[in-house]
Structure prediction request, 355 residues.
Amino acid sequence: MSNPQDRLNEPTLSTRGLQPENKETPISFLNTDIVPSHLFFKRNHFSYPKLTYSNYWLPINGLVKTPKIFSLQEIVKLPSKTIKVILECAGNKRSLFEPKVFGEQWEKGAISQGYWTGVSLTTLLEATGINPKAKEVLIEGYDKGKRTDKNNEYSYSRSLPLDKALDPDTIIAYEYNSQPIPFKHGYPLRLIVPNWYGMASVKWIKQISLISSEFKGPYQSIDYVYYPNKENDTDSFPVTIMNVNSTIQEPVHMEILNTGTHVIKGIAWTGAGEVSKVEVSTDHGDTWLEAEIEPTYRSYGWVSWTYEWSVYDPGEYTIMSKSTDTLGRTQPLKPFWNRKGYGYNAIDKVEVKIE
Prediction:
């Protein structure tokens, strides 16, 4: 039996909102790179949907040759795959933008990862056949509600371009870490779109439709769009692939440490290519030294890194981390400011005091 005191010492989610529920992963206190479901961050636009699992069906319709309705039992019997995927909310680190932007003030924990098991979306689409006029695949969730800027009720719906939908690693998942996906994370079926921000991975899938034109739903044409200008929509473009990024997990911000040797540790990730190096600075960026990256097989997850820091002079220090990927993308000193606060990926920083 587990010790009750151990449970008291376990990390918990940090609350950003309750109606709807939005909570952060305790990213600094994870002792594994596979996030257990009870520590997986929660991002919702509406209250949780009411579903009847015993009569759950997945229709695929629109521009298909043969519309089909799949039962959950049929889907589970199809050839499956398991992939390690990171899901990062597009608003992760929003609270760090200057000037401040409106929205959930996520710190560094709107990010989690683990093993997802399911069926390639392309397997289901091959079973229905694709009409040559199809350009996008529209995924509608059961979660719905009213928006603050609209009077109508909307389902949470997103589309994917056909080529991304047909990527064999875009899956309709039914398990997370070898267990049924928890209801609050999308049970019974959730779309998983590797390399893209988490808004693309629609939960509680209600139906899938193939369409011939660009989808203009509010969670695609209003939200999850980069707006570089505060006053107008000029030069806006959609949020898709995750930026290269890193987070320092230890030490924590404003921690007091003794002189001596300390291990700086963290995670790094990217939505394109792979993380090729992580650099650490303890002198405000005057010098950068490479951290050690833990070996990992190619996946869609983050890499863990460590850097051994010997410090013997008391004082206040700023520790910085900078990740670079194989496409040559590097974290900038300042983020790309946009008025909805998406895609923050500036060099990470924590302040510590040495005594």
Summary: The chain has five helices and 23 strands.
